[in-house]
Every structure is written in C-alpha cells, then in structure tokens.
C-alpha cells in the first residue's frame, strides 16, 4: 500500500506546562517556557459560553483555535475529528456520584455536556461550522486512531480537516482507573495539497503494532500522565527539520509517520 | 460538488433490540405492528417511563477468555454478534482478507458507563472501586470496540465513534472512506448502547422522557422512550458480492446551532441528506422509503417532518420505528439501517407506530400503517446532540441509480 500523504498547516498544544506549540519548540531547544494560566483561554468561545463551559470543552477549543489560527483557514470550512480517550472525566465523576446518591437531582446541563461530542459540538457552534464533525475514542491509541480517521477524511473527501486530541485530568474514584494525572490537548490542521501555509509533509503507513517512539523527559512522563499526550512524538518531530516516528493506531496496529518540511 | 461513490456490498447484517433478537424477530414485530416497549423496570431508582429493554441480556455469558469484559453493554454486544450467523460471516471474511485488513468501526453513546455507575454505587470503605470493578478497560468509551475486536479477533483499524445518537450511522461513512483508500478490504460496522441510569435520569432531567410509550410524529407526543440495542453489518467491495444489498451513499453535517435542540430549519439534517443523495447519484424522487430519526421529541419531529415535506414527493414513504424499539441512542443508526434493509429485502414500509393522531406538520409521505410495497431505495436519518447529523442511502442488490 502506498503511503498516505497529507500536509500540516497548523499545530495547537496545551498542557499545564506548555501554552502552545512554540513553548514545546522552546523546551526542546533547551529553554524553560513560562507555563500558561491554569485555565485554557479558549478564546474562540463566546464569553458567556467560556464562563460556563466544562474543562474538556475549554481544552479542546483552546488547541483547536491555536491550530486553525496558525493555518489561517476559515474554521467554518474545516471538517472536525475530535478524539479523546475518556471524555470529560470531572463530568463522568459527577454523574456517577450523583446517580449513586440522588439520581433525580442530575443536572440537565451536565448531562448534555457529558456526551463525547460535546467539545466538537461547542466548537462547531462557536465557529458556525456546518461541515461534518465527529468524536472518536480508542483508549491509549486515541491520538493515532484519530489521526488515521482525520487522514482518511483528508484523502477520501479531498478536504482540509481539523484534528483535536485531548483529555482532562482524572477526578474522584475514576482517576485511579484512568490514571490521567494532568490535562493534555493537541490539534493539527491537515490538508490534501501543499499550500503557502504548509508547515510539514507527513507520509503515513499502517504497520503491525510496535512500541511507540521513545521520548526524553519530561515528555515521557507527560505521556504516562495523559493518553492524549501519545501524540507527543509527532509534535516533537514537527518541531524539528525532519524524521520519523511510530504511534499506536489500535491495540494491534501501528502507524509509521515520516515527516519532512519540504 | 461531490462525486458519486462506488457502492459497497452489505454482506451480513443483524440487530437485536426490544422487539427481539435478530432479523426475523424484527421483521415479525414490524409486520405485526407490535411494540417492544414496557414500563420501566430497569433504573436503580424508580422513574415513571417506558423503556425498550432487550430480553435476556443479564443471562448472557461471555466466553471464558473474554470474561474481563463482562458488563451489560458487552453482554448485549455478544448477544447481538451471535444472531443471523454474523460471527461466521466475519470469520469467513477474516480468512479471506486477513485480520489486519478488516476495520472495526463501532458507534456508542455511553458504552459501558453502566458499569462505572455500578462501581460508584459499590465503592469500598476507602472510597475506591471494589476489586471486581477494577477493570480499567470497561470504564472507558472504547470498551465496546475493544471488546468486539477481541471477540472477533480483528487487527485492523479499530475506532469508537461517539457522536451521541448519530454514532452508529456515521460508522458506514468511516468504512466507506477506508475501503476507498485501500486501507482495508472489509469493515465490521455497527453499534451498541444499553440502558443505564445516566441516560434515563439524564434525559429525564432535560424533560425529554415521555411518561407513556413514545408517539413519534403524533400531535400529542411528549418525549422519547429510551431503548437499548446492538447491531452489526459487514461491508465489502461491491465486486466481491454483486448479489448483496448496497450502501449507495452517506452524508454528515453539523447544525452549528445548539447542544441539545435541533436547528429550527433542519439545516444540518438537510445538508446531510443532500450529500447522501449526491454521493448516491440519486434524485429525491427515486427514494422509496425513509426511516426517520423520529424520536417523539417535540422539536425533532417538527423539524424532520418539515424537511420530508419540502424535499420529497408523496410517493416517497416515511416513518419512524422508535415506537417499536424506543430510542436506542448510539445504536439507533445501525438498528434503523437494519430496518431500512429489511424494508428493501421484504418489500415492507413499516408503519409509524404510535402516531395515532398525526401532527398536521406531517405531509402525505407519512406511512401511518404498514404498506406492503416494493422498496428499491431506502434512506435512514440519524441526528444527535451537539447538532450532529447523518444520513445513509441503501438499495437492493443490483440497483443502479
């Protein structure tokens, strides 16, 4: 099978240590970037939504907004693939705790914010985007599986796609199960053709399952602390001139990615 | 303008819902206009409503090697996989193409959240999960797809699509793209959602649950009845199975309007419909039957009936079958795809059960009672929270637009 070739036009990133992709670049160059404020700014949301939005939505909208701004594209025209291993864990914790004690008191707003596609729903509303949008999950392989889905949309539909992969930190008893110790989100704008805004070219190929590319600290620890940070090998690669990395696309499937700035 | 897509063959399909296990039970209930809804006997605290509960889920035993996956949602998945010879068809496809060349693409809204709810009801004295609930893989949205991948021994792309009530319709689009690109040779698609407190009390909190059996498109409708279901289909290239029914097209679009109410003009639903017809190379007048989303919520049915009225001639017949199954949420797409395929295979337009006093917004296309007639082309609509819309087009074997 020939490689799947797509182009990167925008990159978004947010974690408690990294405000954006430039901060990752600076870290990899040996500097110590200033950490962002505790709450993602999520400037693409209208102010009233920004005040009320749950953490998962703020995180996803923040990285989506960064990537789209870098690409210079109109968000309304981008198909959306939002991946997350666990969705909004504080809401899941709230729902399960409330249902165990006083089910009739469940909050209607938190219930409709609990759907896995809440973040992409808020994003499409905020950007007046009528393009196809989806929300996906694949446990620890959510980034790779989401990337594969985004690439298949880019190539099969010949359109630009916004990929977001984000997970909140764990909350309550659930946190011991998900082992999410901090939030992490990242985003890419992917296109079928090279343009003036192209930052990198990616050639992807499916492989049998192999270990994910190794990372140095502190990136390795961040990856252990959040499944969405499985995208870090690719993000680190994008901060360099060229190279390749290996990610999981499913429990039994790998994704080899060759990156070039040409 | 979208190119017309090469149709895909649907070489196996099955559904299990409140009206029975497998296709024959579904056809039988549709022909008899027999609802599967019953008074709520499921939730952990009383809630006065009707539900579409699948009989026998509690008694399903998973094979010993898969026991770590045991929970209501995966038990229903296993029950569903064991109908209509589906397991054998997948095994044959695996031998033909190889396990790595078949994708598994499943929709679910809440996966096995019911197991997480149970863990929270039975926390240890120290506030943590009890030992038998310490199974991280079932407390995640990917529980269903990971379980089914293990059960079917598939090693290709494996993805959970979770866009609320459009989830298991969108999986057909994922599969069509991957097959078109040559990433895979076949795909198992489908979805499973099970009854749980989250959805019963959640929809109740939104005041969207009816105290009586749901009445889609009825003037007096007052909300949904929640159901559960499992359904699966096997998709392959059309040249490998020219005698199989076909997926002709798909469409997906976003409302960009509101998290829990549809766009007042059905904008996203209409965009999804137009894209489906364009990919299928169909004119609206060629559509014989539409299985509607028709949840029996005030807003959905009003918007969807108006869309049918402005987009289709009266010869196109339309109905909701949620009066039979209840709203099976993330499984609704695959259950209703199955009903659309049964309509094609058995020449039956199922009547819109529960719509005894039609809402005046419903036009001449609505089939209030069963209509035995030839169905060559059928559509299925699925819409979800977040303004997420999907539409699918199916046709009989050999149909060319």
What key attributes describe this structure?
heterodimer, A: alpha+beta, Peroxisomal Thiolase, Chain A, domain 1, B: alpha/beta, eleven-stranded mixed beta sheet, 11 helices
In short:
Chain A is of the alpha+beta class.
Topology of chain A as a string of helices (H) and strands (E): EHHHEHHHEHEHEEHHEE
CATH topology of chain A: Peroxisomal Thiolase, Chain A, domain 1
Strand runs of chain A, count: 8
Query: What is the chains' assembly state?
Result: heterodimer
User: What is the architecture of chain A at the second tier of CATH?
Assistant: 3-Layer(aba) Sandwich
CATH class annotation of chain B: Alpha Beta
Instruction: Output the CATH class name of chain A.
Output: Alpha Beta
Instruction: Give the overall shape of chain A.
Output: globular
Q: Main sheet of chain A, how many strands, which sense, barrel?
A: 8 strands, mixed
Compute the separation of the termini of chain A in Å: 23 Å
Which structural class matches the secondary elements of chain A?
Answer: alpha+beta
What's the helix count of chain B? 11
> Any idea what the CATH architecture of chain B is?
3-Layer(aba) Sandwich
Average pLDDT score of chain A = 96
Number of strands of chain B: 16
Task: Tally the structural domains of chain B.
Answer: 1
N-to-C SSE string of chain B, H for helix and E for strand: EEHEEHHEHHEHEHEEEHEHEHHEEEE
In CATH terms, what is the fold-level topology of chain B? Answer: Peroxisomal Thiolase, Chain A, domain 1
Average pLDDT value of chain B? 97
Helix content of chain A: 25-40%
């Amino acid at each position: 099978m020939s490689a799947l070739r797509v182009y990167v036009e925008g990159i978004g990133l947010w974690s408690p240590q990294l405000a954006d992709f430039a901060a990752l670049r600076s870290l990899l160059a040996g500097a110590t970037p200033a950490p962002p404020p505790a709450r993602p700014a999520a400037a693409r949301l209208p102010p009233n939504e920004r005040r009320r939005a749950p953490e998962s939505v703020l995180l996803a909208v923040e990285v989506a907004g960064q990537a789209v701004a870098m690409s210079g594209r109109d968000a309304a025209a981008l198909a959306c693939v939002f991946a997350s291993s666990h969705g909004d864990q504080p809401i899941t914790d709230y729902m399960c705790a409330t249902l165990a004690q006083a089910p009739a008191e469940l909050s209607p707003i938190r219930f409709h914010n609990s759907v896995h596609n809440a973040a992409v729903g808020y994003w499409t509303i905020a950007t007046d985007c009528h393009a196809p949008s989806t929300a996906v999950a694949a446990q620890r392989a959510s980034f790779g599986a989401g990337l594969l889905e985004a690439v298949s949309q880019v190539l099969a539909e010949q359109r630009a796609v916004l990929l977001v992969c984000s997970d909140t930190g764990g909350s309550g008893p659930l946190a011991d199960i998900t082992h999410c110790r901090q939030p992490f989100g990242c985003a890419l704008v992917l296109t079928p053709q090279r343009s003036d805004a192209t930052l990198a070219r990616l050639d992807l190929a499916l492989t049998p399952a192999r270990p994910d590319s190794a990372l140095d600290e502190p990136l390795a620890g961040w990856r252990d602390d959040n499944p969405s940070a499985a995208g870090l090998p690719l993000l680190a690669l994008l901060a360099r001139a060229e190279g390749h990395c290996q990610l999981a696309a499913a429990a039994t499937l790998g994704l080899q990615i060759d990156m070039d700035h040409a | 303008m979208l190119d017309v897509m090469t149709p895909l063959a649907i070489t196996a399909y099955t559904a299990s819902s409140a009206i029975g296990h497998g296709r024959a039970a579904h056809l039988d209930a549709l022909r008899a206009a027999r609802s599967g809804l019953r008074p709520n006997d499921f939730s952990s605290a009383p809630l006065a409503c009707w539900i579409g509960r699948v009989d026998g889920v509690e008694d399903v035993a998973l094979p010993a090697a898969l026991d770590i996956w045991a929970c209501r949602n995966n038990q229903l998945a296993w029950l569903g996989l064991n109908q209509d010879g589906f397991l054998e068809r997948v095994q044959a496809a695996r031998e033909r193409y190889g396990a790595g060349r078949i994708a598994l693409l499943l929709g679910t809204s809440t996966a096995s959240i019911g197991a997480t709810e149970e863990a929270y009801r039975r926390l240890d004295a120290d506030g943590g999960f009890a030992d038998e609930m310490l199974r991280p893989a079932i407390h995640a949205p990917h529980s269903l797809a990971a379980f089914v991948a293990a059960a079917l021994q598939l090693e290709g792309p494996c993805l959970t699509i979770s866009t609320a009530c459009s989830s298991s319709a969108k999986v057909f689009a994922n599969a069509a793209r991957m097959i078109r690109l040559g990433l895979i040779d076949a795909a198992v698609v489908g979805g499973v959602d099970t009854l749980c407190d989250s959805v019963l009390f959640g929809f109740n909190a939104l005041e969207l649950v009816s105290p009586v059996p749901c009445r889609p498109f009825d003037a007096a409708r007052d909300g949904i009845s929640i159901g559960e279901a499992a359904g699966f289909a096997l998709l392959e290239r059309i040249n490998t199975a020219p005698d199989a029914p076909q997926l002709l097209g798909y469409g997906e679009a976003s409302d960009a309007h509101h998290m829990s109410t549809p766009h007042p003009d059905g904008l996203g639903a209409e965009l999804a419909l137009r894209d489906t017809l364009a990919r299928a190379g169909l004119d609206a007048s060629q559509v014989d039957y539409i299985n509607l989303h028709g949840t029996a919520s005030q807003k959905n049915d009003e918007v969807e009936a108006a869309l049918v009225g402005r987009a289709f001639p009266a010869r196109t017949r339309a109905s909701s079958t949620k009066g039979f199954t209840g709203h099976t949420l993330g499984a609704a797409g695959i259950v209703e795809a199955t009903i659309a395929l049964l309509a094609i295979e058995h020449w039956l337009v199922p009547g819109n059960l529960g719509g005894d006093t039609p809402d005046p917004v419903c036009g001449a296309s609505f089939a209030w009672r069963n209509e035995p007639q030839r169905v060559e082309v059928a559509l299925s609509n699925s819409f979800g929270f977040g303004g997420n819309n999907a539409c699918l087009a199916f046709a009989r074997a050999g149909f060319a637009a």
